[in-house]
Amino acid sequence: MTGEVAFDIRLESWLNARIAALQSEHPGEKFASLMTLSDLYRFLWRIGFDLELPPSIRHYAASLAFYVMSRVDYIAEESGAASGYIDDLAVSVGGTRVILDEVGFDAISRHWRSDESLQDVLARADALVGRWLPTRVEERVAAYLLR
Q1: How many CA atoms lie within 13 A of 31 on its CB side?
Q2: What angle do CA 96, 11, 63 make, to 5 degrees?
Q3: Which of 57, 75, 118, 135 supports an S-S bond with 87, CB 3.0-4.6 Å?
Q4: pTM of the entire predicted model
Q5: Which element (helix H / strand E) includes 142?
Q6: How many other CB atoms are found less than 10 A from the CB of residue 7?
Q7: CA-CA distances (angstroms) from residue 6 to 2, 9, 11, 20, 38?
Q8: Gap between the Cα atoms of 32 and 48, Å rounded
Q9: H-run or E-run covering 68
Q10: Angle between the N-to-C axes of helices 32-48 and 86-103, in degrees from 0 to 180, rounded to the nearest 10
């Protein structure tokens, strides 16, 4: 097992465990959309190591994956509530849309490993965070990426 794959598995396991713990601590909150964060994280992480993609896309995807795992966030996870992951979900959704616009799904489809379609995951995440936030993130990131 390569170092990237082992690191990927450890981080994904940590994220899944953290979201599962939040689900049990706060059963009344909406967590179905947060569970998609793990799928999006894995997707972005794998794109970051795809040498067939342009370096700007790889670097962008890897930086989004690192943002999800970072303790430095717009909304801190330490608050103990599910809302600490909303910014991670919004950034992941907005960033995924930028990547899709740049390279298309065919170029990155091999990295999507969820049973649910990517479009369904994005739609479900939109329902939780609101469509306006990922759109604003997408516009700002696209402006940076495409300059």
Answers
A1: 16
A2: 40
A3: 75
A4: 0.73
A5: helix 132-145
A6: 13
A7: 6, 5, 9, 21, 16
A8: 26
A9: helix 55-69
A10: 50
